[in-house]
Amino acid sequence: xxxxxxxxxxxxxxxxxxxxxxxxxxxxxxxxxxxxxxxxxxxxxxxxxxxxxxxxxxxxxxxxxxxxxxxxxxxxxxxxxxxxxxxxxxxxxxxxxxxxxx
Length: 102
Description:
- This protein is mainly α.
- Helix content is 75%, strand content 0%.
- It contains three helices and no strands.
């Protein structure tokens, strides 16, 4: 795969991760800011949903996408570039991944 393809895959990997993690992060933050208002995570989720529906649970997810997609793209691309450079330094063919016989 090319660096561009791997970077794109990294950026796309942020989509499911954010969809899964953003609501739990929001609930965690609400629990930290208002510990007196909620008795636990499930109670917080129920109250947030009751107050604003599913949109309230996912509030802030768009901003998280704006942060995570470019960050994951750069992270995966940089990782692959550095990995290939280190493989060349160690006389490992980056294309095959085979170790040198020496």
